[in-house]
Amino acid sequence: DAGITQSPRHKVTETGTPVTLRCHQTENHRYMYWYRQDPGHGLRLIHYSYGVKDTDKGEVSDGYSVSRSKTEDFLLTLESATSSQTSVYFCAISESELSYEQYFGPGTRLTVT
Amino acid sequence: QKEVEQNSGPLSVPEGAIASLNCTYSDRGSQSFFWYRQYSGKSPELIMFIYSNGDKEDGRFTAQLNKASQYVSLLIRDSQPSDSATYLCAVVRSGGYQKVTFGIGTKLQVIP
């Protein structure tokens, strides 16, 4: 298994509170991604990173921000959580620009009440 | 039209049969195609990728790509109950960094 961990694995929070999810990899891969998975929508890309301090938006980036200060860590922040952000969040990594094979972390189940 | 379409299923097949999972995509410039398996409550796991027209075999799995018709399929031979999972099709579209789009997945049930 690719060395990817996510923390926390489960979280319940209230509307309006900030939340930060962490993804940590031990593979030294350049590319890292945050997805959310919801019934009927599949996996949707929130943000991705192509290097330290290099990030870009995905298709559902509104309400989310990211940071990557080290190769191994990619943080996803919900500035002010809303109920529509209740979802399962997956981090993924891939090795190079030419390889789109992605390896996923175990996921974080976030519930916003 | 969705960029990547899959029938959500469930697709039920008896043990030992061939399961055929299909995926269509809208961007003719799409370059790379992937199949992920996702067990309930778990994360997606890459099982196959294909870049060129034709068939690619790996054990009991065969990926088939037809760019002219814009579809990609996954065949699972000698299906086992352990193959019961949701299978996600992913397509790398043209146009720059990491334009990967996932389908909603097809749920496969292998009946013993």
Structural overview:
The complex is a heterodimer of chains A (113) and B (112). In chain A, strands 2, 4, 5, 6, 9, 10 and 11 form a seven-stranded mixed beta sheet that branches. Chain A has a four-stranded antiparallel beta sheet with strand order 1-3-8-7, with no helix packed on it. The model of chain A has no long low-confidence stretch (mean pLDDT 93). Chain A is mainly β. Helix content of chain A is 0%, strand content 58%. Chain A is globular. Chain A is built from no helices and eleven strands. In chain A, strand 9 (87-94) and strand 10 form a beta hairpin. Helix content of chain B is 0%, strand content 54%. Chain B is mainly β. The radius of gyration of chain B is 13 Å and the shape is globular. The mean pLDDT of chain B is 92. At the A-B interface, strand 4, strand 5 and strand 10 of A face strand 5 and strand 9 of B.
Set out the fold topology.
The complex is a heterodimer of chains A (113) and B (112).
Chain A: E1 4-7, E2 10-13, E3 19-25, E4 31-38, E5 42-51, E6 54-57, E7 64-70, E8 73-78, E9 87-94, E10 103-104, E11 108-112
Parallel strand pairs in A: 2-11
Antiparallel strand pairs in A: 1-3, 3-8, 4-5, 4-9, 5-6, 7-8, 9-10, 9-11
Chain B: E1 4-5, E2 11-14, E3 19-25, E4 32-38, E5 45-50, E6 54-58, E7 61-66, E8 71-76, E9 85-92, E10 100-102, E11 106-111
Parallel strand pairs in B: 2-11
Antiparallel strand pairs in B: 1-3, 3-8, 4-5, 4-9, 6-7, 7-8, 9-10, 9-11
